[in-house]
Amino acid sequence: MPVNRRITLAARPVGHPQESDFALDEVDVSSPEAGEVLVRVLWTSVDPYQRGRMSEAKSYAPSLQVGDVITAQSVGHVVESNDRRFSVGDLAVGQLGWQEYATARAGTVRPVPEELDPQTLALHAVGMTGLTAYFGLFDVGKPRAGDTVVVSCAAGAVGQIAGQLAKIAGCRAVGIAGGPEKARDLIELYGYDAAIDYKNDGVAEALRGERVDVYFDNVGGEISQAVHRRLNLGARIVICGQVSQYNAERPELSFHPGLLIMFRARMEGFLVFDYAHRYDEAARKLAHWVASGKIRWREHVTDGLENAPRAFIGMLNGENRGKALVKVAERAE
Please, is 154 exposed, middle or buried when counting C-beta atoms within 10 Å of its C-beta (0-12, 13-18, 19+)? Predict the structure, then answer.
């Protein structure tokens, strides 16, 4: 059997992660048991939620322990199967981690349709970030045609899809991103109606003429404070992420509960995993919108599993343009 290279947690990050917080090691690959598949990972994902899993703070999922493989959505092909649902050569996506080979229960991974092109879409627009945008916007935000939808971290993997879904729903989409290039992407690539560069523009001033019906919050902090002051009556605030707080030793409060009374607003957090029974429904719609050109996307690719920590740190620093992915291997013919 081949050797499995993997990236593990070497130390819990204090503040901003460092490359020294990760380790590259090698272990033997073992054959899958009954009901399992062995997957050769081809692509793996880099996402903000991984920072929370490295902390010991109580959260919605167990913390990684020092020595654990870094959790991540990955796409790969099945090289050995002990479950009738998968055959050798099938493409699969699941929480397979930053590693070259992963053994998983067959029920915890999903097949990737061969017609999906490129198949890395299963890691973003038609994968977990697309599903997050879909359920967060439509089920929690409940947009109505004519609403104004504001999305923070709008050029990120979830934000770029959320804004395009808002447009599909007949809404005005306003995106907040960092830097002039990302602000241009919001308009020219993702079809937002307006873009705010929070690094160079005052967010509160830029929103002065807006009345926000749905706020899709990926970031928290000062940006969210500015948006909250522009809520419309009956606004819905979707709490998807709080990326500005993930490296903070003491997160800052970004919301005054009295605003919910003033604007008769609703604030709700959600986890995409709660909608697992509807993944197929949403994935079909997302794939259709991608194929028809209604959803556009961009990937930011880093080559080599050993460079996953660097890609992760860069993503947290906002260095990526598009969905951050790591290419682990070529698919064997």
Answer: buried
pLDDT in tens, 36-86: 999 999 999 999 999 989 988 888 888 999 999 999 999 999 999 999 999
- Residue recorded with tokens 């929103």: 207
Domains of the chain: total? 2
pLDDT band at 319 (very low <50, low <70, confident <90, very high): very high
- For residues 90-102, average pLDDT: 97
> 33: domain CATH number?
3.90.180.10
What CATH number is given to the structural domain containing 223?
Answer: 3.40.50.720
Tell whether 259 and 223 lie within a shared domain.
yes
Same domain, 147 and 189: yes
Q: Does residue 249 register a pLDDT over 80?
A: no
Q: Is residue 142 part of a domain?
A: yes
Domain that holds residue 112: 3-124+298-327
**Based on the domain organization, do 145 and 256 belong to the same domain?**
yes
- Looking at the structure, do residues 269 and 312 belong to the same domain, yes or no? no
In this structure, the answer to whether residues 243 and 112 fall within a common structural domain is no
CB < 8 Å & 24+ apart, contacts of 241-244: 241/48, 241/49, 241/153, 241/158, 241/217, 242/217, 242/218, 243/48, 243/153, 243/156, 243/218, 243/219, 243/316, 244/219, 244/220
6-39: per-residue pLDDT in tens?
Answer: 999 999 999 899 999 999 999 999 899 999 999 9
